[in-house]
Structure formats: C-alpha cells, structure tokens
Amino acid sequence: MPVVYYPPPTPPWISTSSGRMALLFGGALASAAFYFYMTTKEPSKHREGEEGLYTVPGLQNIGNTCFANSLLQALASSPSFVNWLNNLDYSRVPLRKVQFLMALRDTLNGLNYSKTPTASATAVIEALTYHGWNIGLGREQDLYELFNVFVTTWDDELKCLRMVLRYSLSHVGGESRSPSSSTEEPASGDESENSRETINNNCCRVRSDDFAFLREIFANCHQDLKQTASIRPPCAGTIASQLQCCQPDCLKKKVRYDEFCVISLSIPKSFSYIQVTLDALLRKYFTVEAIKDASCDFCKSQFQRSNGGLMKKQGFCKLPESLVLRIERIEFSPTGGSFKRSDHVKFPEFLDIRDYCFNHSREGEYSRGEVHRHFTKHSLPKIVTGSATQSNLSTDALRQADIMLQRISDSIHSKNFKYELRAVSEHLGGADSGHFVTYRKALDNVSNFWFRTSDSHVTRVAFSAVEASEAYLLIYERVHSPPVPQKTFSDIVLD
C-alpha cells in the first residue's frame, strides 16, 4: 500500500493576510537586527599582544564623514607622520594656536593600538571649524580636497612654532666681553715687565672667553636648525624644474625649485585599453617636454628670438619621508558633465624612484652596471698582504677595483631611494557620490598585515585585496638603510 504524505495543517496565524504580513515584518526585523549586530560588534579578532589592544581601531561615521575617516586612517599608518606630530614642542605657544596639530596627533595615536575598538574624528573637525573651514556634517566631500585643507591648516599653525625658533644671540653666554673692556690700561710711564705680563695674560683670558662665547652661539644655532628641520612636515618635498634653451649658440639653463606635499597623477586617454601602472604614470609626469613657442631671456634680449624652443626637465630634488600620490579619477566631458575613470592602476608594494630624481644619471648607472657584469665573469687578481706583492699590482687593476667598490657602495645606498607602501585609499561609487575606504598597515613594521577600514568596520585582508583596489590616494614611507662605513681599496688590502 503506497504511503501518502499529508502536509501539516497551516497555522491559523499564517492563513490570514495579517498573519503573513506579521511574518514578513518579523523576518525583516530579525535580518536588520542581525546586520546591526554584525556591523557594530567589537572586532575582538583584531586584538593582539598581551595587553589586548586593538591593532587598528575603527572610526565612527558622524554624518557622511567617510572621507575624513579614510584620510585619518591613511595618515595613521605612516610612522613618519605619527613621530612628527609626537615630537613637536607645543609648550612654546598657546594651545589655541596649535589646536589642529594637537587634535591630529591625538587622533592618529588613537588609531594605533588603542584600548577602545573605535575612535572619533570630532576633535579634528572642530579644530578645522575653528580655523574657518566649513566641514559640514552630512555632506559628501572629497578626500584629496580634505588633505589640502590639512596641509593649509598645519602650515598656518607651524608658522607660530617657527616664530619662537628665531635665533636669539643676545642672551647666549651672558654679557659679551671684548679685549678693550676686559683689559686695564697701564698707568702712563709704567712700562715695567710685570705690567706687560699682566696685559698679555688678560688678553689670553679674554680670547678664551670669546671662543667659549662663540662656541655657545654656534651650539645654540645648531640646536635651532635641528628644531626648524623637525617642524618640516614629512610629506614635504622639493621638485626641481629646469628650462634649457634649444639653440646651439645659447644652451643656457634656468632651474626653479617648488615644494610639494602631494603629487597628482592623471591617467592619459591613450591608456584606456592597456594595463596602467604607477611607474608609467610617474614617467609620464616627469618626462622631458619640448616647448616650441618659447625662448629664454638671453635669446630674447640678445638675438630677439621669440620661438627658439625650450626643453623642460623636472625631477625630485629633496625627497620626502612620506610620499603621497593621488591618482586623478574625475574627468569632464565636452558637454560639461563629470565621469569617473575606473581604470585599474597597478602599484608596487616597494617603489624605487631613482629614475625620477633630478640629478640621477642613467648613463653613469649603466656604465657601473657594465663594470659589475665584467667582474662577475672575470675574477680579480689575488691580493696578498705585503709591500712587495702590493707594489706589483698594476694601476689599472686598482682603478677597476675602486670602480667595483663604488658600484657596491651605490647598490647599498640605493635603498635610500626606495619607499614602502603604507596605505591605499579607494573611492567606491560614481563621480557625484560614493564611499571611501582605506587599506592600511599597522604602525609597527613587525607584523606585515593589511587591514581594510570602512568607518568603524575593520577587517584583516591579504595584499591581493589591496592590489585589486582602484587606488585613489597612496602613501609610501621612505626606507632607510643603516649607515655602512666606507672603505677604500687600500683598506681592504690591508685587512
């Protein structure tokens, strides 16, 4: 006999329309409660260390402030920014004069190994409001524009710190002395041997006091120079731009130096259907440019030339500790409308910028590379200590060995041109609206973990997720190699 399945009777509270509505409403309410729990619970999985601190805390969204939260998270990942703010001397000026710098310092410190899972950008926004900036809550704004606001604001406050670091020599070393005021004139007619000895001793004592006074002056100036250098923001660098005349009978050069805190890189339209790399954008930015309809001042005054031609070359002259790069994403159509470029820009975790420096010589680098490849195939003559053996070494061998040592030294110091990626900010959405998130590292260099920060929600991710993002703002930290003692060829022979 076949088994017949009879479904259970429908409950009376579902059979009615009001019951079905209650079921749907209850399910929606349960889903909303689950989503609220998942997005607001404490990220205990990010606690590390014995003290249970949060490695990378989140930031509360207090009204469409994702742009500010993302920028603060990016700056908090840079050791040079955090150390710069912590090392500033705020005690020399009134606190209201450095309100923004102190608020930024406290906020960035709170975004690294904090006892609380979330922080707030309220103090930073209030400090910007005090300086007259209209950072309206509830309105979407751009992360790059906010960074420019940061730069302008801390420049205004740093002026107060620079004013108190002016060199003051009047109170150094007490009252200055001079030989005329310290020596006593002998009485008229008294030219005895004792009086001459007394005058000579006084002169020697005065000269000694004057040298001590000058030493203290120079020590004070040196200290002031160090403090002035410490005030310089870590993202501040210098670009040198050279204009050279193209006429063979002139070839005069003119160099201009411009400071920068961020470099904006545009994506050319010709890159629309090829793989875009950060290296290609930097080469496009620092490429040599020919200006046809222009002439140098000397050609205009001496030869009355108006279109002799100029060659423009630019490159890094002073490297910043923290290199901030912005990739322009918003463009405008001929009709006036704006649209967003969603091209994926491939960026490295370690960036070498030697080729973008103003005084870097590719020809010299190539010649040293040829010498290095030569010595990998042909061994050097064996060197034995002893004056007789050393005298038999040819001058050519010594010169070649010095070139090889220079090549090794250059390869060691080339690390000073390398930068490590610390943070990547990404914009999700269209040209008019969207959401900012930041991928960042922890402040220490021990754990090589990456974190995705989206307001108060923080998750650990792999670097592959960082590489796949559409980068809008990148922050690189300069890598410093430990100092290596220089040795000449003769030192190695004697060793």
Automatic annotation (TrEMBL):
Residues 172-196 are annotated as: Disordered. GO terms for cellular component: cytosol; nucleus. Residues 172-186 have a biased composition (Low complexity). It catalyses: Thiol-dependent hydrolysis of ester, thioester, amide, peptide and isopeptide bonds formed by the C-terminal Gly of ubiquitin (a 76-residue protein attached to proteins as an intracellular targeting signal). GO terms for biological process: protein deubiquitination; proteolysis. Residues 57-479 form the USP domain. GO terms for molecular function: cysteine-type deubiquitinase activity. It is an enzyme of class 3 (hydrolase). It comes from the Eukaryota. InterPro entries: Papain-like_cys_pep_sf, Peptidase_C19, Peptidase_C19_UCH, USP, USP_CS. Keywords: Hydrolase, Protease, Thiol protease, Ubl conjugation pathway. Its EC number is 3.4.19.12. Belongs to the peptidase C19 family. This is Ubiquitin carboxyl-terminal hydrolase. The lineage of its organism: Eukaryota, Metazoa, Ecdysozoa, Nematoda, Chromadorea.
